[in-house]
Amino acid sequence: MTNRIEITDFMDSNLDIYARLSENQLLHYDEPKAGLFLAESPKVINRSLDAGYEPVSVLVDMDQTDEETKAVISRCGNLPVYTANTSLLSKLTGFPMTRGLLCAMRRKELPAVSQICENARRIVVLERVMNPTNVGAIFRSAAALNMDAVLLTPGCSDPLYRRAARVSMGTVFQIPWTFFETDKSWPEKGMDCLKRMGFETAAMALKEDSIGIEDERLSKAHRLALVLGTEGEGLAEKTIARCDYTVRIPMSHGVDSLNVAAASAVAFWQLGRGR
Q: What pLDDT, on a 0 to 100 scale, did the predictor assign at position 2?
């Protein structure tokens, strides 16, 4: 049995988390608890529920009556299900809602880096990748192409931000991930931590001493961390200097590099072969 509540007042305070709080404000909602995030579309919401995230409320277009949407709502139990027409929802949220469905979810406490990496052999480290679309796309490729975990430095877009989770198709709920704790922990302490856990490190960067992604030293590494940098500027020089390898993807037609999300997919495919 769902608790449906039709919305007619644009300023209804029950909808602040959908309409008037930024994603950063949701992240810090109810501190010191872990905060909230918005999951968008039936697929993403289903995967977040499968991963054990707790729903708080649902916002749905009253004209959205397909069976997949109904099934998702039924999984949320007797929570508030706010409904409104399409035009009001567009004004309310400020963006078109994918499949007319949003769900406010409680975050979980992030696990420690050591916990994420305990049984991992191939991991991804993102350094200040700020575009949520790129973060989401990297997660989708990592999940699909045999990566075991994703680590993020401070400054990266949060994988649970609405756009990142949606672009990932919900794979942010399927592959383990966490953040390094503070800016001061990366790269010095973060790299030391990876090395203590037995990871060789490979920086994706265009340098004279770069080796090809197909180099057998990479495929033979027992544990390998692939480090990807922010859009435009790439990895910091001090990060590259601390890595065991600098790696490039061979290019043609005078192209020097790929977008970080596209480069990640190529690298993950190559490094995940034969696993």
A: 65
